[in-house]
Amino acid sequence: MAVGQRPSRGGLYGARRGLGAAVVVIGLLAIIATAVAHFWPGDVETGTPAAHGAEILRYDVRSRFVHRTLPQVAAIPRGAGGQRRPLLVFLHGRGKDGEESNAIGELFAALDRLGARAPVVVFPSGGEASYFHKRSSGDWGRYVLDEVIPQAVKRLHADPQRVAIGGISMGGFGAYSIARLRPREFCAVGGHSPALWRNSGETAPGAFDDAEDFARNDVIAIARARGRSAWGDAKLWLDGGTENPFRAGGEALAGALGITMRHWKRAHEGDYWRAHFGSYLRFYAAALAAC
Predict the structure, then answer these.
(1) C-alpha neighbours within 13 Å on the C-beta side of residue 225
(2) Residue 204 CB neighbours (<10 A)
(3) Are 232 and 199 in contact (CB under 8 A)?
(4) CA spacing 20 to 30 A to 279: which of 172, 232, 235, 262?
(5) How many helices (H) and strands (E) does the chain have?
């Protein structure tokens, strides 16, 4: 059975239930699309006020795992001066050209406030709706692990022993999905309004290939079976808005991990994430410093 497909019960009741499910899914996708559009920042360049002293780099990664060339945005914070800083891999939400969506002034301002503790950051492209896991379109997890991170370490002169991964919405799911593949490689994992579903019937179209794909990558089920050990010694973070449509999934993962999910006001939208980049960056900096 494909992801999102429900068994038919026939008759008017079945038709109404199917219509209701479709409306819910369409509404969820509309919320996500609105959030991406509202959040869209435009490019940040080195030397502009929005960069807050960071050096902004753009380059491509030719991936053998997803069989395409994908753009990357990276930032070296002010004052790095050849120091071997830790690396933060920050994954974007669903949408086109997502590698630019978090490379914005609010994030760079938060990075600048960290001073000498600020990591270098890479924002890799995950395509429009890869959800950063292995699927028919390619192995997006291996792309991040074996191509994005090594190239970022080399280009940004980062410390390969101090790496954190996090992301927003689709990227929040991706961070937890990728980190459990090689838990010893990450000092911290963060999900900010992560796109998490409790079963395959809840998922948005395109998030997974089918129910079997969902089952292979069900991080909530993995956490219930293995607990925190599936993510090694990494420091873990989950947060989401009080009106976040993925709140139930996030709470389910937090409960399985034995951690508290933070909730602040607002919905699944750019204003919410912009308001909390400071908290996110402080979490990653502290975890990387203690790693």
Answers:
(1) 8
(2) 22
(3) no
(4) 232
(5) 9, 10
For 37-55, what is each residue's pLDDT tens digit? 334 445 788 889 899 999 9
CA distance 258 to 228: 8
Half-sphere CA count of 12, side-chain side, radius 13 A: 0
- Which two tokens mark 75? 């930032």
Check if the beta carbon of residue 61 is closer than 8 Å to that of residue 147.
Answer: yes
CA distance 194 to 268: 10
> Is residue 32 within 8 Å of 169, Cβ to Cβ?
yes
Other Cβ atoms closer than 10 A to 161:
12
Task: Give the C-alpha separation, 77 to 74, whole Å.
Answer: 10
> In whole angstroms, what is the distance from residue 197 CA to residue 203 CA?
6
Evaluate if residue 177 carries a pLDDT over 70: yes
CA gyration radius for the chain?
19
pLDDT above 60 (res 10):
no
Determine the Cα angle at 153 with ends 149 and 159, to 5°: 115
The predicted pLDDT at position 70 comes to 98
Half-sphere exposure of 124 (CA within 13 A, CB side): 32
3-class DSSP assignment, residue 112: helix
DSSP 8-state code for residue 278 = H
Span 225-270, pLDDT tens digits: 999 999 999 999 999 999 999 999 999 999 999 999 999 999 999 9
72-90 tens-digit pLDDT? 999 999 987 677 999 999 9
The model's confidence at residue 18, banded by pLDDT at 50, 70 and 90, is very low
**DSSP H or E segment with residue 18:** helix 11-39
DSSP strand pairing (188-192 vs 235-241)? parallel
